[in-house]
Amino acid sequence: MNINDRVVSLFRTKQAAPTYTSTSQNQMRTNEDAKLQDETYVYYGTRICGKVTASLPALSAFLPRVFNTEKQRQIADEELQQRHIKLLAKRLEETDNDIITIKAEIDKNGHRIQAIDDSIANLKEKLIEAKSIHGDVNKMAKVKMIIGLVILTILTLYLIIFYSSTFYSAFFKQFGVNVSIGEAMFDSQAIPHALHDGLGELIFIMCAPIIFMGLGYGLHFFMQQKSWTKYVKTGSVLAITFIFDCILAYLIAKKIYFIEILTKLGEYPDYSLKMAINDESVWAVIFCGFIVYIIWGIVFDMTLSAYEDIRSNKKEILKLEDSISAQKISLSQEKQRLTVNNATLESLENKRKSLISEISNTIHYDTQIIHTALSDFFTGWMTMMNGLSRPAAEQDEANQIFKTTINQLFN
Hints:
The protein has helices at 3-9, 31-36, 41-51, 56-76, 78-132, 139-171, 181-185, 190-197, 199-223, 229-262, 273-277, 280-309, 314-360, 367-387, 392-410. The protein is mainly alpha-helical. The radius of gyration is 48 Å and the shape is elongated. Residues 1-31 have low confidence and may be disordered.
């Protein structure tokens, strides 16, 4: 048995590919075509390659022949034609449903765009009205400012007395026997006594309320900012103030504790942080200062805001301008979605026209099946070339012929 017979014998068994029938009465029934009816394309490629001894010109001739043979087979297969038409009809139905869906979405886009346009127009009218009264006296803001100033004045006097007293008590005052926490927090003679002790002591205790009111002003300034860092800054100011009040309360309570134990017999432990936490005097000092400080900061912020609004509705104008900017962003996004949806609709309508044209065509064939047939034929051809021990350069040329022919046949 020669090498051709051995290679051919490998393909005697039928493969899983379908059996091919005759195509049309007009098809040329050569001997090779008759044999092709009862064999796979892999085997057909192997057999032809062996018969022409792997001739490259023959490969160029047989590839179009396989293309036309498989094409005619599909055209003559009525069951395949009907199946293909049903598949196209199903795809057309799905495309029609997609067109209905995208049209509904485009309609929604139009309604949303119109609603946003109306909203922007309404906001612009309000902005024009707000700007027209800009500079008129705002009576409500004036009333708020006056009330705020009255409350702020009282709170400021309170903070001056409280912090000057607590600073003096914590750092300079020498407590007598039976001193109370109230006397330590509110000493009407703190300023004269500090002056008597020295100018430095006076300046020190007078700066105390200014420090805390400065922190309150910082709260107002930070809350006007738009960055998220304002919350970090505000929290830091509150924490510093609270710690400051805790230190003052601890120092005062510690002094009172030592005065008390001097009048008693026995040994007593040093004043500790644990004792301070459980000491009501400590918490009294903290909250009499810290809570009032928080209230002062809130009233101060409200008073300044009212002052800004006396002859100005700047906040209202800024709010309207921000709303218009936000609506314009939404409008731009909605128009972009509309553009995408219109492009999708155009693509679907072109696809629908293509499907209708394809359905109306009486001849249908599956190019993928034809491509598979050509690939199977060439696989068999290359198998025989390997069996005939053709050089690599010749096999590479055969590959190039196959690629070139495929491009020509399907383009």
